[in-house]
Design a protein that fits this description.
2% strand; Flavocytochrome C3, Chain A, domain 2; globular; mainly alpha; disordered N terminus; 2 strands; two-stranded antiparallel sheet
Length: 197
């Protein structure tokens, strides 16, 4: 079965690599509604359905916290008056789902070291985590699943990020931009080839 993707892009919706599931209004989701990557991974680890867990584990989101220990992150932190990016809420609000888009840890079910987990992009899973809900994408979306996940990216992938490079991407029409959702999505996509369209 061929997989297809649609993107809902607007001036307020742009990124992919480590966005947070902040609703358009900007309010952080209820910390009690998060279930954690272990719960998501119970069903999303089979090769025949795309092994989304392995895709995440091998991708940049799972390494978002660890990246804060890099020399580049420390240099960017220094410019923002941050001594240790791995201990600063200024950095962790985007590099750790546990911070839920805020500058203080909010979610006990998710370790800070897990980096940016499933629910940062797809929304807190409490209401859509069950197999019966997830088998029907429309029902899962109605229960809070953010799909496509590109709707939640701009919360972190924006010009306020200390590593923002306004010329990082070149679009098909030759325009330089700090973020291109289509190119970024290609780096982290994890489709389910068995999903109903």
């Amino acid at each position: 079965m061929k997989t297809s993707y649609r993107f809902a892009c607007s001036a307020g919706v742009v990124a992919v690599l480590s966005g947070l599931s902040l609703p358009v209004a900007g309010a952080a989701p209820d910390p009690a509604a998060f279930v954690g990557v272990k719960t998501c991974g119970m069903c999303h680890k089979k090769d025949e359905t795309g092994n989304q867990l392995a895709s995440w584990q091998n991708g940049p989101h799972a390494k978002a916290f660890a990246k804060l220990a890099s020399p580049e992150a420390k240099a960017a932190g220094a410019k923002a008056s941050v001594d240790d990016p791995q201990k600063s809420g200024k950095c962790l609000k985007c590099h750790a789902t546990a911070y839920n888009g805020t500058e203080t840890a909010q979610i006990e079910k998710i370790a800070v070291e897990d980096g940016v987990t499933c629910e940062s992009c797809h929304g807190a899973g409490k209401e859509y985590k069950s197999k019966t809900v997830m088998q029907d994408r429309a029902q899962a979306v109605a229960a809070g699943l953010i799909y496509p996940a590109t709707k939640s990216c701009e919360a972190c992938h924006n010009s306020q990020a200390p590593s923002w490079n306004p010329e990082r991407y070149t679009t098909k029409d030759g325009k330089k931009t700090g973020f291109d959702v289509i190119q970024a999505f290609e780096k982290i996509k994890h489709p389910n080839p068995a999903a109903k369209k």
